[in-house]
Amino acid sequence: MTLTIRMLLFTFLLIPSSWKKIGERNRALEAAEQAYTSTDFEESVRRHLALISEQQLSDPQVKFNLALSYQNNGQEEEALKTYSEISLSRQSVIASFGANQAGVLEGRESNYKEALAYFKTALLKNPYNEVARYNYELLSRWLEENEEEEKEQQDQENEEKLEPSNYAKRMKAQADSFLDQFRFKEALETMQKAMEIDETVRYYQGYINNLNDINEIDEN
Known about the structure:
Layout: H1 2-37, H2 41-53, H3 60-72, H4 76-86, H5 92-108, H6 112-125, H7 130-161, H8 166-180, H9 184-197, H10 205-219
Helix pairs in contact: 1-2, 2-3, 3-4, 4-5, 5-6, 6-7, 8-9, 9-10
């Protein structure tokens, strides 16, 4: 009988202790939420860090709110690091949100390929994340178009840097002599054959294009 009373006493003493911890945790959550809602992001960072370290709340939602607080507080590096951690979560919806936000931050730093990879992760985690889908499709199209423009610009720059060899200059002079005689086909063939063995002939690419146009008109 005495043992039973002691066990009951021990049980009753534990319950108020757990209630106290739950109450403290709820107050900490409310304080963190209040700090974020009032746009006191510095305090929100502190409160959410306390939730993780003191209240042992490692839930992805808490970390997501911490990452948002970091981002709004101007701590982009910490925000990106936290979003990246969230993107690995088994909770697919919050992991998708984290990956999308990480992509946004990478995009703002002009790290477009990294951003695209995060948007793709966001869609793999949650195919119904329409914001991530929009970001992925928009950035994907932009990168494709931009890469084509960069390639064209690079090709143009390479052509401008290209200097014709003495052979290329000689073939150009020979083509000019054919052109003076209205022998457009021979002029074009001279430059085309020269290009097969000497890449510096590309210096005259515009000239060759004009010869090709003239030859087509002449044949018609």
